[in-house]
Each structure stands twice: as structure tokens, then as C-alpha cells.
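Example record used in the benchmark description.
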Amino acid sequence: QVTLEESGGGLVQPGGSLRLSCAASGSILSINVMGWYRQAQGKERELVANIISGGSIEYADSVKGRFTISRDNSKNTVVLQMNSLKPEDTAVFYCYAVVLATNYRTLRVWGQGTVVTVSS
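Model output (C-alpha cells):
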């Protein structure tokens, strides 16, 4: 009913940049939360950044000053601009959304993940 499609992952050298995009589609009335999590090998999935409802933004301490999250005008796409990337940023990044569907159910939806590798 609701799908998140992620793009923008890849291989980048330390200090480089990547832009991740996530587009929500399907039977959506509104989107309450959109954001990004990541999971590195051997570690738990952790929040990277969220945009909540009217525009409140939350960042993990480890990415503050380097990553920027934003929405487009349609309110169904979220972008994560990642600058000054470090090897410890290497992970599978997952888009996440809390969506009010057209059947009036609140859904928590995950994307399939996009791989970010920061290495020389």
C-alpha cells in the first residue's frame, strides 16, 4: 500500500559527499515522519536524521554539522545531503516513514536500504 524508494548510495572516498533520496508512494493521506536510519556491520540500526510533521528536525550527534535533511515541495520526498564523509559512516542506510494511509491506518514503513561505503 505504501512504498519507500531509496537512491543515491555508492562508494565515496573519505571527505567526499553523497546525496540520498527517498520517495514515498502509494495510498497516502499524510506523512507524519520521514527520515533515515543506518546499520553498520555488527552494529544495531541507529537513527541518522528525521523530519517530524511540520518541520522539526532531529540529527544524531555523530552527523551534526556534516549531514542535512530536507523535504521537497510535494512533501513525499526526503533528501539527506551527506558531506565530509568518514569511514565510520559506512553502513546500509534505510529510509523510514510514519504514514497516515487512505484507510486511516498509521503505518510505519521501511525502505529496502541503500549501501554507503566510505573508503580509500
